[in-house]
Request: fold
Amino acid sequence: MTTLTLVRHGQTDWNLAQRIQGSTDIPLNETGRRQAVETGRRLVDAGVDVIVSSPLIRALETARIISGILGLGEPGIVDDIVERAYGEAEGMDAAQLADRFPGMKGVPGIERRSEVRSRVLPALERVALANPGAHVMVVAHGGVISSVVRYLSDRALPEPNYRMPNGSDHRFGYAGGLLQLTEFNGVRVDFPPRPVVPIASPSSAPS
Reply:
């Protein structure tokens, strides 16, 4: 069994302003750096062997801070765990979004959740297969982690309108082509393992 702990990056100024980041590369603010330190300290005895990260700077800086606390090396980069792209909605706050794209409907350039699953799940499997039996920390993003959790919990989690905390960690187990959510933000959960394939192809599944 390979353990994957997915960590959401620390806070950015856009998080604070509740602006949609998506693939826009926004750095951590001071609160975000403190959150990364807190996450590293919280997981110092978790037995993490390897740390990898999304290439976006808010995730990579979080990973570097945590790696320093855990005594690990430079985090590896996994391009396919980059945050969900939100197209023309990126940079908008809640009021702007409600005015232009109510309910996040019809946003040009937005990535479907099914498309996120189609790239992220195989990427997590590649990470697990490259580190058999290890405990790997994967520093990623709220949209990425939510998409994985939603698939593995059959949409039981996260709850509607749930805001995934910056610096939160979520644990998964991988073995034999199956991925299982075992802990959600510090709370043990009991969902059956599921194949590391999306529910449906991006062409046939709604977001």
